[in-house]
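Continuing the series of single-chain predictions for the mutant panel. This is the parent chain; the variants come on the following pages.
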Amino acid sequence: MELFGNNLKHYRGCSGFTLIELLFVLGIFTLLIVASIPSYHAIKENVALKNSSNEIIRALRKAQNDSVIAMGGTGHGVHFASAGYTIFEGNDWATGKPVNEYQLVAGIKIISGENSDVIFDRLTGKTSCKTIEIGLSDENKKIIAIDETGRINVGD
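Parent structure:
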């Protein structure tokens, strides 16, 4: 008794994919991967920029909250340098006490607002208006705006 009957002879003649067909498919996959690399790089930079702006907002809110609860009996603020920022305790950066220091992700820098301070008033959390711009370039940036009531907004 034959399991496959006469169909076995039919399948012996088929050879599957040819080398040219496999190379053609591999070539198409290679082109798709090469074409997607710049998009992946741009997405990666945008995610890093968004994460950095969120970290700065968290630092600003921490300084504001510490001022509102009058931690240490004084106001708190954030000092911005070219490659990072520092939360400090006190009424100005020069005489204040650093609390936490943070570095920006490689490639991201403070475009506007470098060497400036955002100081929140004790108990009220109010501050003077400030705008901090961070980014990879003048075209790819985030603008963090702090108004006099201490509200923090982010834009492009």
